[in-house]
Amino acid sequence: MRYIALFVALLLSLTTAYPVAAGTWGYGQFDSDHALDFAADWAEAGTVESIREALTFAAGQAYLGAPDAEKALVAAEVVAASLGKPNDKLPAELATWISRQPPQELRSLVPLALSAIDRVRNPSGSELYELWDDQGAEQWLTHVNELVIRLKS
Fold it and tell me: Of 60, 54, 48, which is closest to residue 35 (Cα–Cα)?
């Protein structure tokens, strides 16, 4: 019985130490299960057009659901990496995929990536923002804003 109580106490301490959204284990663009799934899918069978579609969809929504917002952030990370400004956590298989794509096509998506990020970080039009706001969006926004800086530099 004592071991069960210790185990429960340990679980509670772990779940309260890092207040992040479900399926997420950090504040960065590659710190969620969804984001890593999108990265793996693109690395396996993505196209520049699929990156454009993810960004276009996100930028054009009045209200953007969390999975689509995460997908847009990963797509924006692909664009940033094509500029030579990759995220430190960019999965190796996605970096390899990016290196095989026409760089000018990806680089031409910078304005669209910035527009999609604006939608993602809009407090009144993004489910992902709302989820992070429940936990304190400042640290998450720091990572998103750092992506914007890499796209603009």
Answer: 54
